[in-house]
Amino acid sequence: xxxxxxxxxxxxxxxxxxxxxxxxxxxxxxxxxxxxxxxxxxxxxxxxxxxxxxxxxxxxxxxxxxxxxxxxxxxxxxxxxxxxxxxxxxxxxxxxxxxxxxxxxxxxxxxxxxxxxxxxxxxxxxxxxxxxxxxxxxxxxxxx
Length: 144
Description:
Number of helices: 2
Distance between the termini: 32 Å
Order of helices and strands: EEEHEEEEHEEE
Largest sheet: 4 strands, mixed
CATH class: Alpha Beta
CATH topology: 2,3-Dihydroxybiphenyl 1,2-Dioxygenase, domain 1
Radius of gyration: 19 Å
Number of domains: 1
CATH superfamily: 2,3-Dihydroxybiphenyl 1,2-Dioxygenase, domain 1
Shape: globular
Strand order of the largest sheet: 3-6-5-4
Mean pLDDT: 88
Number of strands: 10
């Protein structure tokens, strides 16, 4: 078990052994219909395409960006069964300094649907939820 201790200067000494300290997190999501999902992420929500990765002339995955947020969507190859349920048991949380009500309006104007309209939370953030075509839920929150 690691513990941190305060040092005389008022700072903290790193736990020993040093605890895990990640710097970024990116998600890779397997989708049923890559083209449809790409249109949703790009046209409805507003992600931009980073790179497309091909195999034998067929796009297999696409990296997407929204500010510092990175997501990879990958074509389902069917190896684990085509009828398996995706998107359950996970919610991805994105923070933004943009106006959530304007983002919600833009998503709806582009044909998207919200799972939850923007609402003020007790901790001070404003949060809305959207679901992609495969059922992956994104909570989009004002930066508190």
